[in-house]
Amino acid sequence: MITDSQLILKRGFDLILSLSLLPFLFLPIVLLICICTIDTRQWGVFSQNRVGQHGRLFRIYKLRTLKREPHHLGHLEKSATRIGKFLRSSKLDELPQLFNVIVGNMSFVGPRPDVQGFADVLEGDDRIILRVKPGITGEATLKYKDEELVLAQQVDPESYNRTNIWVDKVQINKKYVQNWSFSLDLTLILKSIIPSS
Questions:
Q1: Which stretches within 41-75 are classed as H helix?
Q2: Could you write out the DSSP letters of every residue in 108-153?
Q3: Pairing of the two strands 107-109 and 135-137
Q4: What's the CA angle centered on 101, arms 58 and 113, to 5 degrees?
Q5: Do 85 and 66 touch, CB atoms closer than 8 A?
Q6: Whole-angstrom Cα distance, residue 126 to residue 188?
Q7: Quick check: 79 and 69 in contact, CB under 8 A?
Q8: How far is CA 69 from CA 50, 61, 63, 66, 152, in A?
Q9: pLDDT number for residue 71
Q10: E strands of 24-94, at which residues?
Q11: pLDDT band at 70 (very low <50, low <70, confident <90, very high)
Q12: Residue 94 and residue 1 in contact, taking contact as beta carbons nearer than 8 Å
């Protein structure tokens, strides 16, 4: 299982990389926020409480991609604007999470941060997932990169997510924490940047 010294190494890498990327990504993020503000007719940054390391709540930041209407799991793609669909499919909507990494409540690699009712209610050995900070990418994120499309095909998306996808994600994320290495994080970052053929 990932050790305290490995967590320090992981945080150091996150901080160096995020601060190195900030000068290049700051203006594009500001521009995208302006575009999303015009496109959705709301403030272009979406924020929400998510469950973080040790079960503590934090505010996650994303570009706003959805229209001003009720949103339901499995139907988010229908609620997204045209620009929003592109941002979601390209994962550019997650660029503001660079600031989450800088302040220290997220990592570049780790389990995706969920809303309350999932990671915070894990029991027994499953709770080792909470030992690491949630990540922008990770093994489960890569496996379920088309999760919204999968859920849209289900009769009961909420039930399918809890009984199938979430259960599998827990096992994937447990193995990540149990077998963490710096090279594993680098590999997952590269896999996220360079799509497989």
A1: none
A2: EESSPPPPTTSGGG--GGGGGGGGS--EEE-HHHHHTTTHHHHHHT
A3: parallel
A4: 45
A5: no
A6: 22
A7: yes
A8: 21, 19, 16, 8, 17
A9: 55
A10: 45-51, 57-63
A11: low
A12: no
Mean pLDDT of the chain: 92
Which tokens belong to 48? 């929400």
d(CA 159, CA 143) in angstroms, rounded, equals: 19
The two structure tokens encoding residue 129: 């997932």
How far apart are the C-alpha atoms of 152 and 118, rounded to whole Å? 20
Task: State the CB neighbour count (10 A cutoff) for residue 4.
Answer: 8
Number of domains within the chain:
1
Q: Does residue 62 contact residue 45 with C-beta atoms inside 8 Å?
A: yes
Residues 64 and 36: beta-carbon distance below 8 Å: yes
Rounded to whole angstroms, the Cα distance separating 15 from 189 reads: 15
State the residue range of the domain holding 46: 4-193
Helix (H, G, I), strand (E, B) or coil at 51: strand
Band the pLDDT of 194: cuts 50, 70, 90. Answer: confident
Q: What is the pLDDT of residue 148?
A: 84
Tokens of 128: 């080792």
The total of other beta-carbon atoms located within 10 Å of residue 137's CB is 21
pTM of the shown model: 0.90
| Bridge partner residues of 59 (DSSP) | 49
Containing 137, the helix (H) or strand (E) segment is strand 135-137
